[in-house]
Amino acid sequence: MNKKIAVVGLLSMLMFACSSNRAPSNNPNPDTTSADDTTQTSLYSDSSANGSDNNGMNSGNDQATNSVYYDINRYDVADQYGATVAYNANFLAAHGDAIIRVEGNTDDTGSVEYNLALGQRRADSVKKALITKGGNAAQIEATSNGKLIAKFSNDTEDGRAKNRRSDMFYTKVAPNGYHLTANELPAIN
């Protein structure tokens, strides 16, 4: 019995140590950016944002640029998403009639109840970050999908990582270039 507990504990520590809070990337060399990454970075540039890692922008056809990604069981907004949050907060502050819905999502690990609660904490953390950066609370709705609306297959770690995110959808008055990707994820370009 003690051996089983030790093995489970060791595997859990290894999974935690190997995980990261970075968004999944299609870029084989994360230290370089493509021309598309540079264009998106300038759209979201903010002096308070981290100057590396595309200023928090995601790239690739299957990733939303208007999303925040998380590590397993985490809901804190990582610094790398500061520019994305700041851009949306600034847009909300400048457009009082704009409305944004933040949807928290999880992978399929764990119960429905746990994932609904985790998704809500993720959405609430993005809402709080938007408000901290100047967004008006009355313009921001935070909801949870938990694991109920997976956009990617949970059969692979890459798919699960892409499902661990909060999406910022504009429901009224959106920035120029706002659209949904083929996977129905919010993007701005």
Name of the CATH superfamily: OmpA-like domain
Please report the distance between the alpha carbons of the first and last residues: 54 Å
* Coarse morphology: globular
Question: What fraction, in percent, of the residue positions are helical?
Answer: 25-40%
Attribute tags:
alpha+beta; 4-stranded mixed β-sheet; two-stranded antiparallel sheet; 6 strands; 35% helix
Q: Can you walk me through this structure?
A:
There is one protein chain. The chain is globular. Helix content is 35%, strand content 16%. 39% of the residues are buried. Mean pLDDT is 76; it is low at 4-62. The strands form two sheets. A four-stranded mixed sheet has the order 1-4-2-3. It has a two-stranded antiparallel ribbon with strand order 5-6. The protein is α+β, with helices and mostly antiparallel strands and 189 residues long. Strand 5 and strand 6 (186-188) form a beta hairpin. Helix 3 (82-94) packs across helix 4 (112-132). It has one domain: 60s Ribosomal Protein L30, Chain: A, CATH 3.30.1330.60. It contains five helices and six strands, in the order H-H-E-H-E-H-E-H-E-E-E.
Task: Tell me the layout of helices and strands.
Elements lengths: L1 H17 L16 H9 L23 E3 L12 H13 L4 E7 L6 H21 L7 E7 L10 H7 L1 E8 L5 E3 L5 E3 L1
Parallel strand pairs: 2-3
Antiparallel strand pairs: 1-4, 2-4, 5-6
Helix pairs in contact: 3-4
Can you give me a brief rundown of this structure?
The chain has 189 residues and is α+β, with helices and mostly antiparallel strands.
